[in-house]
């Protein structure tokens, strides 16, 4: 597998479509940072990191509203291994008129677009969610 971020986003998307309570992702610091942003923004219920020998995994708990529909309308990978997408701080100010979130890999870590704008830094746009 070459793109662990795309694999994780696909696992979350598929679990939400099937209305599963949890899904398991492969662990990396970037994936853990992305999942923590999704929890902070209210798209996921929570997550926990488990260690089985030398392998780590992230167990993600999905979030649904009162009608049983998922909180995630669209979860999309933007920057791909064949084509990296970089944006400056002014280009990532708002996404979907404030209803969505861009997750940006900056020199200060993996941040949501509003936090990256506040800090005055741009970077590689990893994914978008709304």
Class by SSE composition: alpha+beta
Give the total of beta strands.
8
Low-confidence spans: pLDDT under 50, at least 5 residues?
Answer: none
- Reading the helices and strands in chain order gives HEHEEEEEEHE
**Radius of gyration, whole Å:** 15 Å
Distance from N terminus to C terminus (CA atoms, Å) equals 26 Å
Integer average pLDDT: 92
Itemize the secondary structure elements and their pairings.
Elements: H1 4-17, E1 22-26, H2 29-40, E2 44-52, E3 55-62, E4 75-77, E5 86-87, E6 101-106, E7 109-112, H3 113-119, E8 123-129
Antiparallel strand pairs: 1-3, 2-3, 4-8, 5-8, 6-7, 6-8
If you had to describe this structure to a student in words, what would you say it looks like?
By secondary structure, the chain is α+β, with helices and mostly antiparallel strands. It has one domain: Dna Ligase, domain 1, CATH 3.30.1490.10. Helix content is 25%, strand content 34%. The protein has three helices and eight strands; from the N terminus they run αβαββββββαβ. The protein has helices at residues 4-17, 29-40, 113-119; strands at residues 22-26, 44-52, 55-62, 75-77, 86-87, 101-106, 109-112, 123-129. The model has no long low-confidence stretch (mean pLDDT 92).
């Amino acid at each position: 597998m070459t793109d662990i971020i795309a694999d994780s986003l696909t696992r979350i998307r598929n679990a939400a479509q099937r209305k599963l309570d949890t899904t398991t992702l492969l662990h990396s610091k970037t994936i853990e940072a992305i999942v923590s942003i999704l929890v902070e923004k209210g798209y996921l219920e929570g997550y926990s990191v488990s260690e089985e020998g030398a392998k780590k995994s992230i167990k993600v708990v999905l979030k649904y509203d009162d009608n049983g529909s998922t909180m995630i309308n669209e979860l999309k990978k933007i920057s791909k291994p064949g084509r990296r997408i970089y944006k400056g701080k002014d280009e990532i100010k708002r996404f979907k008129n404030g209803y969505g979130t861009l997750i940006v890999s900056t020199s200060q870590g993996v941040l949501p677009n509003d936090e990256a704008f506040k800090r005055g830094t741009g970077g590689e746009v990893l994914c978008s969610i709304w």
